[in-house]
Amino acid sequence: MKDKRIVILTGAGVSAESGLGTFRDKDGLWTKYDLNDVATPEGFARNPEFVHNFYNQRRQNLVDATPNAAHHALGRLESEFPGDVLVVTQNIDRLHEMGGSKNVLHMHGEMLKSRCDFCQHVIHWEGDLNLAMRCEQCGTAGAMRPHVVWFGEMPFYMDDIQHALDLCDLFLSIGTSGNVYPAAGFVAQVRHRGTAHTVELNLEPSEGSALFHDSVLGPATEVVPSYVDDLLANGW
Ligand code: OAD
Questions:
Q1: 34 lies in which domain range?
Q2: Is 228 in the same domain as 121?
């Protein structure tokens, strides 16, 4: 297993049992808000104060959240697996890092960072954002925005992710509904290459469920630790 590479795609379902809501489940965020208002550059341009308030509230929930057994299991996998483990997450929380994962790519950005829309300078930011804030680098007022990827924007790290998908031997998809591209297309890409094993671990079958070799259904805090134990003991 020394030369083997694992890529793990995660979504909101992995953080659900840490008290962070998902998007498309019953009571999910997109049942309460129109994503065009709060998760697009056009929505931000129309009403920046409303968008700041939406993310300020989410940021406070996230600051207090703690990792669950699924995050810890993935951290353990990275430290105990003799090969390479990469987590590609759509989540903007920091729970993978708190659970011990070091090799993490946040393709949809990070909530505890803020970015200047003018000069692209990124800072760590745990407080509220508002329109009066100035960029510490270029001094522009009102340009600081959440360092997250909105619909219509390019996800981060796509070159690194493509490279990892091209080389992986095992692709896991955990807690994501498979509705949002490009992440939703990763499994098809890995399957097309034909040499990697693919497994989804989710509460229910995702949109792309038929494309995976195996599907393990159940809450992440239960299925992920037992899958990781089995993987470390027996491989795949
Ligand atoms: P979704 O809300 O679309 O899907 C969450 C998935 O997690 C669903 O398939 C659930 O069945 C599953 N799930 C819920 N609770 C679970 C649990 N306890 N254990 C295991 N699985 C569970 O969230 P994402 O797929 O992450 O992007 O959404 C993808 C993107 O859409 C997000 O990154 C966000 C959103 O709009 C942007 O905002 C750009």
A1: 21-64+110-148
A2: no
> Do 60 and 144 belong together in one domain?
yes
Tell me which of 131, 148, 165 is where a domain ends.
148
Shared domain for 16 and 128, answered yes or no, is no
Cα separation, 234 vs 101, in Å, equals 21
Ligand 1 center to 45 CA (angstroms): 26
SS3 223: helix
Say how far apart CA 38 and CA 30 lie, in whole Å: 10
Dist. CA 191–CA 86, nearest whole Å: 18
Residue of 40, 180, 221, 222 to mutate, ligand 1, most atoms within 8 A of C-beta = 180
The token pair at 50 is 């409303």
Same domain? For 58 and 126 the reply is yes
198 lines ligand 1 (CB under 6 A): no
Helix (H, G, I), strand (E, B) or coil at 197: strand
Are 120 and 227 contained in the same domain? no
Please give the model's pTM, rounded to 2 decimal places: 0.97
Burial label for 139, CB within 10 Å (0-12, 13-18, 19+), is exposed
Is residue 128 within 6 Å of ligand 1 at its C-beta?
no
Q: 117: domain CATH number?
A: 3.30.1600.10
Give me the active site residues, please: 108
Question: Do 163 and 203 belong to one domain?
Answer: yes
- Decide: residue 210, CB within 10 A, 0-12 exposed, 13-18 middle, 19+ buried: exposed
pLDDT, one tens digit per residue, over 35-85 is 999 999 999 999 999 999 999 999 999 999 999 999 999 999 999 999 999
